[in-house]
Amino acid sequence: MTLLAEQIKSAALEMGYEKCGIIKVSYLDGYEEKLNERIDRIPETKGFYQSMYRFTRIQETHPWAKSIVICVRRYGKYNIPKHLKGMIAKYYLVDGRKDENSKDFQDSLKFEKYMQDLGLRAENERGFGLAPLRWAALKAGLGRVRKNNFFYTENGSWVYLEAWLIDKELEAIEEPKVKACSEKCGLCIKACPSASLSEPYTMSPMACVSCVTTFMGRDMINEKYREQIGNWVYGCDVCQDVCPMNKNRWEETEEFPNLQELSQHISLEKILKMDYSFLEDVMQPKFWYIDKQSVWKWKVNAINVMVNDYEEQYREHILNACNDSNLKVREMAEWAVKKLNL
């Protein structure tokens, strides 16, 4: 490892990252083959994975890029409001990638500036990334991908990845210290509510509860996995929660900025009462997998949970939603009235 690579890695650790590695862009060779393999397993996923082929053309889209700096950030340390557990997936509650109030976000900016001050061109996309994050982390030896498709370090899967393209050829690769999944273990596959995890190391996004309740799922009434969604309004943690490698890995020792305050505005009933300005201006920037034009999904998803686990207290809220200003919400509420014989 060169002195410059050591400096970058050391700075990342000082700024709160759990791990940092650097790989050459050429290490992405083989990623396209892996994408093709996934599509071959489940052909109907072709449309979903199509956008990821952009990562096979990095040297065309970013001809200046020579290496990828890949960092691991632990989020399994924040207090999660009890009433939101099992309703909104934990990562989305403490996602610091775009939350300017979070230390995670501020540290990301500082680390990027540090690299730029070293004379490097360093670029990041704080969302879905400019590179295949899990692939890069694997190639850098920072951990493993387990049967549930999540990336794991010694802190389990309660981590997220960030990557920067830089214009210098560097390398900092570790030997992964995380042991592989037991061949006998299939807890994540057995627990998956919608059988999205049909076999180890593969999944169908169209069946994934997390996908359906966020950027997919535009026709909940006719959604094939509507009942399997259960009590999830946004996201799903099931396959991570049951994983033995995540046991005791989440430690609620810190507060995420503004989460406790925001949580007081969130319940199934309160979601149905939310005006659309609140959904667009407060909820959407926080939970950005649902775009502003689709914030009606929050209400549709809430109604679906009410139907899946009905309590009499939901009756008036579902009936009131029949008069919602959004057609999709009205249709879902009217469907729920008939389904529940309200």
Automatic annotation (TrEMBL):
Keywords: 4Fe-4S, Iron, Iron-sulfur, Metal-binding, Oxidoreductase. Its EC number is 1.1.-.-. It comes from the Bacteria. This is Epoxyqueuosine reductase. It comes from Clostridium puniceum. One of its GO terms (biological process) is tRNA queuosine(34) biosynthetic process. Residues 170-202 form the 4Fe-4S ferredoxin-type domain. The keyword Iron applies. GO terms for molecular function: 4 iron, 4 sulfur cluster binding; epoxyqueuosine reductase activity. Signal peptide: none annotated. It is an enzyme of class 1 (oxidoreductase). PANTHER family: EPOXYQUEUOSINE REDUCTASE.
